[in-house]
Amino acid sequence: MSLEFLLTALVIVLLPGPGVVYTLSLGLKAGLRAGLIAAFGCTLGILPHLVAGVLGLSAVLAASATLFRAIQIAGVLYLLLMAWRTWRDREAFSVEAAEDRPAAFGIVLAAIGLNLFNPKLPLFFLAFLPQFIDPLDPRPILRMVELGAGFMGLTFAVFAVYGAFAASARNLLIRRPAILVWLRRSFACAFALMGLRLALAGR
Q1: Is the pLDDT of residue 158 over 80?
Q2: TM spans, by residue (predicted)?
Q3: How far is CA 72 from CA 16, 145, 192, 199, 202, in A?
Q4: SS in 3 state form for 102-149?
């Protein structure tokens, strides 16, 4: 695994996206544990795309405009659902809600959904990873799995830092209800804007 790949993948992982917003929101809402679980769930959401890439399904997706659009629409709807739920959940960042530990399964499931319906990820595994695989490599599939695992490891590490940062800021913000309301609405708007951007994005 080359340094060039690690640096390029790190830049991609650092870019804000739905997973980052979700991890930050959980870290603020319920602390470090929830933020780390969200990071883990977002990382697991990459696994189906890696498997699809290894099996060659990414190539099918890249060749089928209809299939790509269907996944894109599903992603838009999911992001808008997250926006609506975040906007309406008035207790999301309240002291009372923060004291209760949200179910780990629910956090992971929502996080997986964010990446599962991201149509850019399969294209990432189709267009990005092959650049770092030698055409003469006798085991290209094993090499792709190795690079995908490295990408997932970077994703978890970066998202865990995001979650830890949010959890550390939570204690400072929890005493300021007005700021927490603003944060909740900001996260809702962020999900909605990402859904709009995905809806307008081309292939």
Answers
A1: yes
A2: 33-55, 67-84, 104-129, 141-167, 179-200
A3: 18, 25, 14, 7, 10
A4: CCHHHHHHHHHHHHHCCCHHHHHHHHCHHHHCCCCCCCHHHHHHHHHH
